[in-house]
Amino acid sequence: MTTFDPTIALIEASDGDQRAWDSLVARYSGLVWATARSFRLADADAADVFQATWFRLVEKLHQVRDGAGLGAWLATTARNEAIDMLRRRGRESPTDLDEHMAAVRSTSDLPEETVLRAEEDRLLWQAVGRLPERCSRLLRAMGTDPVPSYAELAAALGIPVGSIGPTRARCLGMLRGLMAST
To answer: Residue 145 and residue 32: Cα distance in Å, rounded?
Structure first.
């Protein structure tokens, strides 16, 4: 089993190696998607940001050579694309939580458990929506699989790496308080 080296993957992808490109997309697509979704874009808009971010990498493939900084570059590019989209729209589109929750599949066989879980999820996402924007964006970004690194989160959200842990703790505390009051 070989380890993934983003610098080598960038070089090979710029030379036309499809497997190298596929490995880059597989490795970083969660980060790009989480960054787009952290702006509370609708699924279609987040998909546009996702696609535009990868297109920017294709355009800059011969210039981007720092594999260690690729995650930060992609997160920053996705952030800029999302901001550009919001500016073009002139308003921020809220996330359609009902659509999101309908897409989530329950592993439960009992209808009662499915209904209860859907209600708990609805209440959770409503509470996340009531958090300050910074908290909402951070928790949404951290709720992806795989969870982005602190460096990638910092680049995507525009906050210092050292403040992510304490900010996360404060945000989760606020979320617990909101959930306890419902």
So the answer is: 12
Note the pTM of the prediction, 2 decimals: 0.54
Helix residue ranges per DSSP H, the chain: 6-14, 18-37, 43-60, 70-89, 97-103, 111-130, 133-142, 150-157, 164-180
SS3 content of the chain, % helix, strand, coil (to 5): 75, 0, 25
Cβ partners under 8 Å of residue 17, min gap 6: none
Indicate the average pLDDT of the chain.
82
Domain 6-95+131-180 has CATH 2.30.110.10: no
The predicted-structure confidence for 4-42, as pLDDT tens digits, reads as follows 888 999 999 999 999 999 999 988 988 898 888 888 888
- Rounded to an integer, the average pLDDT of 68-81 is 89
The answer for 40, left when phi > 0, alpha when psi is -120 to 50, beta otherwise, is left
Q: Which of 8, 7, 81, 99 is nearest to 45 (CA)?
A: 81
Closest to 100 in 3D by CA, of 149, 33, 51, 181: 33
Q: Where are the domains of the chain?
A: 6-95+131-180
DSSP 8-state symbol, 143: T
Which helix (H) or strand (E) covers residue 139, if one does? helix 133-142
